[in-house]
Here is the input.
Amino acid sequence: MLTKKNILNPKNWISSHADYLYNYTITRVNNHDLAKDLVQETFLAGLKAMENFQGKSSERTWLISILKRKIIDYYRKINSAKGKAEVRMNFYTDGENEGDWIEERAPSDWSSEIDKSIENDELSIVLDKCIDHLPEKYAMVFRMKTIQQFETEDICKELEITSSNLWVIIHRARTQLRKCMEENWFKK
Here is the structure.
């Protein structure tokens, strides 16, 4: 018994599959622009890989398998790029501000309002003194990540530490800096 071999018809992909692929994607990424981009990437990857299509599955099934890999790659990329997805930081341990932060949502740079405040010479001097009082490795990692804005991967390679260790150091440095700033600046 012969089975019918399916063929690809890229000219009809948008009219035949775009809506279905988009709806499949939006339920997994919950971002309209990202869903559109992933569908476009799927069509492009499908065009590039047409010679690999063996006709054993339907055109839609084949496109969905490509799309699934695109979605997985997207999540791997954002999780590995951060290296800190679920690291919790206990930033305030007492008083009305007590609570945790998820590391990826913690303030990572000292811009806008804080930059304006740092222009004040006294604050800058106190902050520098507080950073100088950190253990040497903490100060180095803090400066590289927060002030100089090096990538996590680059810092880890240069200092031969893991990304988990880096985020522990950053957390401890921030905690010590907060305490130092509270004692030397905010209580004045």
Summary: The chain has a mean pLDDT of 78. The domain at 88-186 is CATH 1.10.10.10 (Arc Repressor Mutant, subunit A). The CA atoms of residues 16 and 60 lie 9 Å apart.
